[in-house]
TrEMBL record:
Name used for this protein in its record: MFS transporter
Chief localisation class: membrane
Species lineage: Bacteria, Pseudomonadati, Pseudomonadota, Alphaproteobacteria, Sphingomonadales
A Pfam match: PTR2
UniProt KW keywords: Cell membrane, Membrane, Peptide transport, Protein transport, Transmembrane, Transmembrane helix, Transport
Gene Ontology CC terms, in alphabetical order: plasma membrane
Source organism per UniProt: Sphingomonas spermidinifaciens
Length: 494
């Protein structure tokens, strides 16, 4: 038997390697995302609508490629190599954006270079994001009770990055110079890669390719499968580079993938599964169907809420006018504070047989995310003709974070829990696709807030509509939750 892995805080040391690598990756992602819409409108001088369209194409595509990246790692590359390759593409993408800043207001070649950077991040995230979570899982046996706590620790790493990234990148980008911000995001990802390379041996063989000989053997024109995948990634960068300027094409591609995946899951469930397993898949599909609505509201954060904070909010705190991008870190700070409290709350309720079912939590999530917008609308109305007090921005993000904790981790864990083993990857893929769809709809909503000559009233009108809509759907979900919960057959879930 292999000697026991060295531990730290009762967990394999590999967990902390993944923690810091993902922390730096999220530092770069959320840092860059915090200044992206500001950069598009203030540097490239796009109008709000086209800026939201580009932003939306990017944020949807970063959630589509992990489906493919997960598949390639499972079949050929292994998760470890996939994370390494992904980190490389991500770092290159951020640094490219920093290099192609160009003079303010100039598009042309600089804009092409900027799109190339975004495309590289899209492909890199495809290789990295799902697979680094897979590696966390591989450090533990299936029945190891430390598995769930390990994912909670890992989620802290994600949000540590999501907290520090917007502060560092935001302050540098908005006050020193855009390329300083994007450069900092790139340096962050390089730091993550260095952690991963130097301490990779702590993973003790997790995420090896399933068949190394197959991966390295030449198949066509002297190229191995491994090199064909890398070449495919470069082609993928080209395709994303082209797609990013055609938001409608991204939308259609997304919808087609989603419908096919959804139909395939229904067919598999009906044709291949016994009654209880089939019911559980239908319960999971119910959750997947609600997923786009949630992210469509939640993901206003980096786009329309970011610009609203920049233009309509009194951002002066203790005499310092805080750059709008810095507020993008508030969600992560609240997650770090609230995640342990929610975990405790669910366990507390569970012991008393009172824990709400997953669909019930989804209903709450939809109500609370809608409520967040209604609170902002009320807050803005309380100071007519003046800037909105900053407390309401904190209130939106607080409510949105509480909603996220009823939604995101619950959705992820139920995809694996409700699936049969042979369909887990497929269900995860569908969840990511639905998230991508949410990001896409989010950009349509953002575009509705910023048409030609639209003032702040338009933003608030849209926020009020989506707030009420989501809350109403949430109430409907609470009503049907008991029926969906019955489909989960938790008594026989083992
Ligand atoms: N904030 C989390 C992350 O970046 C979850 C994001 C999501 O699933 N949309 O990993």
């Amino acid at each position: 038997a292999a000697p026991a892995a060295k531990e730290f805080l009762g967990h394999p040391r590999g967990l902390f390697v993944l923690f810091f690598a993902e922390m730096w990756e999220r530092f770069s992602y959320y840092g860059m995302r915090a200044i992206l819409i500001l950069f598009l409108t203030k540097h490239f001088l796009f109008g709000d609508e086209p800026a939201y369209a580009i932003y939306g194409a990017y944020t949807s595509m970063v959630y589509i490629t992990p489906v493919l990246g997960g598949y390639l790692a499972d079949r050929y590359l292994g998760a470890r190599q996939a994370v390494l390759v992904g980190g490389f593409f991500i770092a290159a993408g951020h640094l490219m954006i920093a290099l192609f800043e160009g003079p303010a207001g100039q598009q042309g070649l600089y804009l092409d270079g900027f799109y190339l950077g975004l495309a590289s991040i899209i492909i890199g995230t495809g290789f990295l994001k799902a697979n680094i979570s897979v590696l966390v899982g591989q450090l533990y046996r299936r029945d190891d009770p430390r598995r769930d706590p390990a994912f909670s620790i890992f989620y802290m790493g994600i949000n540590l990055g999501g907290w520090l990234g917007p502060i560092a990148v935001g302050i540098l980008g908005e006050t020193v110079g855009w390329s300083w911000g994007f450069g900092a995001a790139g340096v962050g990802m390089v730091a993550g890669l260095i952690v991963f390379i130097i301490f990779g041996h702590e993973l003790r063989g997790a995420g090896e390719p399933p068949n190394r000989a197959l991966l390295k053997a030449p198949v066509a024109a002297g190229l191995s499968r491994e090199w064909i995948i890398y070449l495919g990634a470069v082609v993928g960068v080209g395709i994303s580079w082209w797609l990013i300027r055609f938001q409608n094409a991204v939308g259609w591609a997304l919808m087609t993938c989603f419908v096919i995946t959804y139909a395939f899951i229904v067919w598999k469930a009906v044709a291949k599964l016994a009654r209880e397993d089939r019911d559980r898949i239908f319960a999971a599909l119910f959750l997947i169907t609600l997923c786009p609505l949630f992210w469509a509201l939640f993901e206003q954060a980096g786009s329309s809420l970011n610009l609203y904070t920049d233009r309509q909010v009194d951002r002066t705190i203790l005499g310092w006018e805080v750059p709008a991008s810095v507020f993008q870190s508030v969600n992560s700070i609240f997650i770090i504070i609230l995640a342990p409290i929610f975990a405790w709350l669910w366990t507390f309720l569970n012991k008393r047989g009172l824990e709400p079912s997953a669909p019930f939590k989804f209903g709450i999530g939809l109500i609370v995310v809608g409520l967040g917008f209604l609170v902002l609308v009320a807050g803005a109305a309380s100071t007519p003709g003046e800037l909105t007090p900053v407390i309401f921005i904190f209130a939106v993000y607080l409510l949105h974070t509480m909603a996220e904790l009823c939604f995101s981790p619950v959705g992820l864990s139920n995809m694996t829990r409700l699936s049969v083993a042979s369909m887990t990857g497929l269900m995860m893929g569908a969840w990511f696709l639905a998230t991508a769809g949410g990001n896409f709809i989010a950009s349509l909503i953002a575009q509705a807030t910023g048409g030609e000559g639209a003032g702040p009233e338009r933003v608030l009108e849209v926020y009020s509509t989506i707030g009420w809509f989501s809350a109403a759907v949430g109430v409907g979900v609470l009503a049907v939750a008991p029926f969906v919960a019955r489909l989960m057959h938790l008594d026989t879930l083992g």
